Amino acid sequence: MTTPVANTSASIGAVEVQEIAGDDDVVRVRQLVRAQAVAATRLSLVDQTKLVTAASELARNTLLHGGGGRAEVQIVTNGRRKGVRIVFTDSGPGIPDLDLAFTDGYTTKGGLGLGLSGARRLMDEFDLQTAPGQGTTVTAVKWER
Asked: Does the first or last residue of the chain, that is N or C, have fewer Cβ atoms within 10 Å of its Cβ?
């Protein structure tokens, strides 16, 4: 199951990896994403906040729904501008119904049900690969304006 994203980015920075096994790791993901955004791109403060918020939601989903996993953060370019690509991978149960999962207010863990749909709205590119019993991988990019 896929929410398509243009594959127009080329890597220009090293991949920074953060394992996600607990709440402290979610905080570390946010810190890593913010540090990459500030150090290597000209993302506005608003876009940095959107990126960090999306990363936080996706890291929390990786932990709560996927049972943990990993985050990869990398600076990328599309030839005209730089951005930050974040990739979250887990080996959890997968998402059986993507349409339902992207419905605002839908939750399986008692939250607000805005994490996945909100993260998608905050990012410029968003791709989700999942299958029941095979885990989930979310790839998203935020570009400089």
From this structure: C
